[in-house]
Amino acid sequence: MLNINNLHTAIGDKEILKGLSLKINAGEIHAIMGPNGAGKSTLTYTLGGRPGYEVTSGAVEFDGQDLLALAPHERAAAGLFLGFQYPVEIPGVSNVQFLREALNAQRKLRGEAPLSGGEFLKVARAQADAMGMNMDMLKRPVNVGFSGGEKKRNEMVQMGILDPKLAILDETDSGLDIDALRVVGEGINRVMRKPDKAVLLITHYQRLLDYVQPDFVHVLAAGRIVKSGGPELALELEREGYAEIAA
Amino acid sequence: MTNIADTKNAEALAAANKVSDYEWGFSSDIEQEFAPKGLSEDTVRFISAKKNEPEWMLDWRLKAYRYWLTMETPHWAKLNIPPIDYQDAYYYAAPKAKKQLGSLDEVDPEILRVYEKLGIPLEEQKMLAGVEGARKVAVDAVFDSVSVATTFRKELEEAGVIFRSISEAIREYPEQVKKWLGKVVPMHDNYFAALNCAVFSDGTFVYIPEGVRCPMELSTYFRINAENTGQFERTLIVADKGSYVSYLEGCTAPMRDENQLHAAVVELVILDDAEIKYSTVQNWYPGDAEGKGGIYNFVTKRALCQGKNSKVSWTQVETGSAVTWKYPSCVLNGENSVGEFYSVAVTNNHQQADTGTKMIHNGKNSRSTIVSKGISAGKSNGTYRGLVKVAANADGVRNFTQCDSLLLGDQCGAHTVPYIEVKNPTAQIEHEATTSKISDDQLFYAMQRGLDQESAVALIVNGFAKEVLQQLPMEFAVEAQKLLGISLEGSVG
Amino acid sequence: MTLPTRRDEAWRYADIDAVARLWPLAAPTRINVAAGDAAARHLIVDAAQGATEIRQFAINLDKGAKFDFHVLALGGAYGRIELDVILHEGADFNLGGVILGNDDQILEIVTTVNHVEPGATSNQTIRAVMADKATGTYLGKVAVARGAQHTDSVQSFKAMLLGRAATANAKPELEIYADDVKCAHGAAIGELDAMGLFYLESRGLTPADAKRLMLQAFVAGVFDGAEAEEALQAAALAKLGELV
User: Fold this and answer.
1) Which residues partner with B358 through β-bridges?
2) Does the residue B126 lie in any domain?
3) How many domains does chain C have?
4) Predicted ipTM?
C-alpha cells in the first residue's frame, strides 16, 4: 500500500530525513518509534505534503500512485489520513461544516456523489457516538477550546468519518489519560484494523501499543530506520531506552 | 563680528539667564563669541566660518536654511506648545556655555538630591554640575583614569574606528561625511531637521570599518565633557559591512543645560550584515512642578538599514524635557533587515511627550519589533505615535508592536496613535495595545511586604517597563531603573 | 463646511475626488437611544459599481442605553461608513463591521467612540478582506474623557489581503484621560494561517475551498446575533465568493 524508498527531506537547508525506506502492506499495522529529533514528525508531514518540507530525493508510492506528486488534498482523497500531533484550531469553522465539505470534496475527486446534510449527519453521529464524543462538540469550531484529549478524540472521529485507507497517526497518544488512551486505541482498531487498510503509528512510548498491537515496529534515529522487528522490539525499547538500540 | 560681540554680549547672557530655570547667574567676565541674535543667512555663515567648514558645507547649510524658511512647524503631534519665536534666540552664543562653579554648594540642591539618589560618586557629581577643576577627576571617575580614556582612543584607532566630533570629521574626513550626511534624514524632511541642517553646532561622527566589531561601547558621555555639544546636535554613524557598534547617548543624571530649544538630528547608516545598537537615556530638565521652564526637545532620529541582513536597535528611556517630539525610525531597505524600537517614556507634572517610531519596510523579509511603554503621571500627557508601513514589493515582512500605557492618577493622559499601512499580502503585522493603572491591590501587596509607597511604585513601574530596560547595556539599565522611580516621585498618594 | 483633504486625519486614506462629487454631505443621521433602552441597527453599503456612498451617523446613548450596530461595506468605487458615538454613564455600544473589496474599490469604516461618563462599555470588531487593487481602511478612535472611570473598551481590527496590489490601512487610536479604565486594541494584518490551510487540505479540501472556508470563518463571527444576521451573512458570503 505504501512504499517509501530512500526518502530525503529537508526543512530549509537542514536535512532531517536521510534515506528512510519503509514498506507497508494492506492489513498491517506498523509502529515507528524514536527519540525526540529523530525525524518522526518530519516523516508525517512529508507524507502529508506540508509546504516547507522539501523532498530532496527518494520516492513514495501510495496505492500505486506517486504520492509526492499529489497536493495535500489529493493525498487525502487518495485515502491518506494524517492524525496531527497538535490538531490545529480553526476559529469560526464548525467541525460539522468542515468535515462535510472535506468528505464531499474527497468524494468528488474520487468520482462519488456528495452526501446530503442528513446523510452526513448520520455518519458523523455514528462516529461521534463510537468515540464517546458529544454531538455538541461536533458543532463547535474545529478544535477551539478543546482540551488536549478532546482534540485527539476529535482526530479519531474525523478519521472515522473520512474512512481512509492509510492512517498516519503522529503521537496520537500524547496528552491522553489512561481512559482516553483506551478509547482512542479502540477507535483505531475499530476503524482501521481491516484487511484493506493500514496504519502507521508514530510514537515515543510503548503505551499506545498496549491497545493497538502492531505487526511491525521500527526504530527511527537520525533520519533513518535503524532497526525493525516485531512487537517485542517496542518492549525492548521501553526497557532499554533508545540509546542502546539506536547505537 | 568682534564689535557686535562686544555690544551684544550682555544681551545674550541676559537671554540665557531668562531661559534658564536655574539660579546660577553668569559672571561678567565670561568671554563668549556668538552669532547675532535671530536666524538669518548671516547666522548660518557665521557658524560655518566659526567651524572652519569647507565651502560645500556652507552651501549645504544655506540651502537647508532657505528651505526651512518655506516650511511650517508640524501641527499633528499631541503637544500644546506656545509659538516659538525663532528670531528671539541665539544660535551660536553664550547660552550653551556652562558656567564653572566654585563648589557643589553652588549647585541647585534639588539636582544634588537626584545625584545622590542615583548613587553618583561625588567627583562625578562635580563634573556633571560643571564645578571648576572637576573635569579631569570626573573622567577618571567614569573611566578609572585618564590613561584608560587614552587607551580607549588608541584602541579605537587601531581598530580603524573613526570617532570624532562632526566638525572635526567634516574637516578631516569630508568624503565620508559628504557621502551620508543628510541622506538618511534629508534636509527637507521636517521643520526641525531643516533647522538643524542650517545651524547645527556640533555633534558626533562615527565610522566602523568593514568587518570590525567596535572594541567598546561608544558613549557621548566622555566626549560631551571635552567638547560642548550644542543645542542643535548632529550625529552620523556609519556601520560598514559586517561591523557592529553599540552607542550610548545621554546620561542618567540631569545635565545642566541652559538651552530651551533642542533640535537634534541623528542619522544611522547600516550596510550589509552590520548592526548598530543605539541606546538613549534622556533626562533633561523637565520644568518645575507647575510646568514652568524645561527643555523643548525636537529630535529627528532615523536609521537606514541599507544592506541585506542589516540591523538597528533603538532603545530609549525618556524621562526628561518639558516637551518631547521624537520618533527614532527605521527605513528597512535591505533584504532580511531588522529594525527594533524599545521605548520607555515617563511624563510627570506638566510634561508632554509625543514619541514613537516608524518602521518602513521596503526590503523583502524585513522584520521589525516595537515595544513601547508609556507612563503618565501628574498632569502630564504621553502619546505613542507610530507607523508601520509595508511596500508593495516587500514580501514576507513581519512586524510585532506592543504598546502599553500606565496611568498614575486621574489628571494625566495616555494616548496611542498607531498607523498601519500594508500593501503586500504576505505581510504579517500584529499590533496590541493595553492601558492599565497601578492597582491598589498591587500597591498594598508590595507595601505589606515592607516597601514604602515610593519604592512600591518604582518596583511596579520597573516591572511594567522591564522588556525595554533589559535592552539597555547593563550599567545604563541599573541607573535607568532608579531614574524611573525618581521621575515619578510624589505622583501617587 | 470645506471639502476635507488628505491632511485631515479622518480622511487621510479617502478618495477625495469621490468625496468632492458628493460634497457638501447631508447632515449625519442622528440616532438617539434613550436611557435604559436598547436598540439595534444594521447597514449594508452596497452602492452600484463606480458609485460613491458615504454614510455618517451621530449616535448618542443616554445613561444605561445599549446599541448594537452591524455594518457591511462591499459596494461602490468609494464607500465610507462614519460613526460618531457618545456614551453616557453605563451605556453599551457594540459595532460589528466587515469590509469586503475587490477591483479598485476604496472602502472605509471610521469611528470615534467617546466615553464621556463613567462605566460605559464599547466593543468594536472589524474584519476586512481585500482582493485585487482594493483598499480597506479602519480608522477607529476611542476617547475616554477625564472622569470617565471604569470605561471598558475593546477594539479589534483584522485584515486579509488576497491580491498583490491590495492595501489595508488601520489606525486604532486611544485617547485616554482617566486612569481606572480598561482599554485594549488589537490590529492584525496578514495571510491566512498556513498550518490551518494545510490541516484543511490534509482532510481533502481543495486549496481554493480551504481558503474560502477560512475566510468565511474570518468574517462570519462578526454578524453573530446581529439584527438581520441572515441578510448580512448572505451578502457577505456572496461577495466573498467574488473575492476568492
Assistant:
1) B387
2) yes
3) 1
4) 0.92
